[in-house]
Amino acid sequence: MINAFLFDLDGVLVDTAGFHYQAWRRMANSLGFDFTHEFNETLKGVSRMDSLNRILDLGRVKLSEEQKLILAAQKNSWYLELVNQMTPADILPGVNAFLEQTKRAGIRTALGSVSKNAPLILERVGMTGLFDAVIDGTKITNSKPDPEVFLKGADELNVPAAQCIVFEDAVAGIEAAKRAGMFALGIGTPDVLTEADLVVPSLEHLTVAELLAAVDKAQG
Ligand code: BG6
Ligand code: MG
Ligand code: MG
Fold first, then answer.
1. What is the number of the ligand closest to the CA of 169?
2. Range of 189's domain?
3. Which residues does the UniProt site feature Important for catalytic activity and assists the phosphoryl transfer reaction to Asp8 by balancing charge and orienting the reacting groups point to (predicted)?
4. pTM of the predicted model, to two decimals?
């Protein structure tokens, strides 16, 4: 029995995953190196400082904590230049219809994002107030793949973990969902999201009824 949907934000509801990628590459390029799309998959769902540390390790760049904070702030301001141009048209295809079906089905909803910019993004795309609970980067101490963000979401909704479906585009997010004891729906491709319980390319061609039937079948 499923009673709650927990949605990741970046790359699931809006296409900000591409903005993070652009801004981090701009920072890496400014330090004289680059990184691939494959490496970028390992950054998705990971907090700002953890992402920075992974990128600096890749480029073998050693910096003081103070210098790291400056770089993280620079990346964030490049990222915000892109976010500030967002409008409701930047909600990914199928998301609005899927959320409407979710409400009609009486399923509770939470946002589960490690981004500190989540409230700003929700405002830019007109989604503030749409979720029964919002857990963002300001409310957690451990980034995905730690399950904290989803456990807090389920707790705020008062729904047991086993009754939750997590919607995730990140490898780290799928791991977080599984560690939380939840059904993990991957948004993307099965070759990347290998640990997901089910993978769909986007929410565009999925209905709530189809998803619940698939979960029922998977759980036997
Ligand atoms: C996650 C993204 O949602 O938020 C990561 O998938 C990002 O790429 C993380 O690093 C932290 O975001 P922010 O907006 O706080 O820098
Ligand atoms: Mg994501
Ligand atoms: Mg996220």
1. 2
2. 4-15+88-219
3. 113, 144
4. 0.95
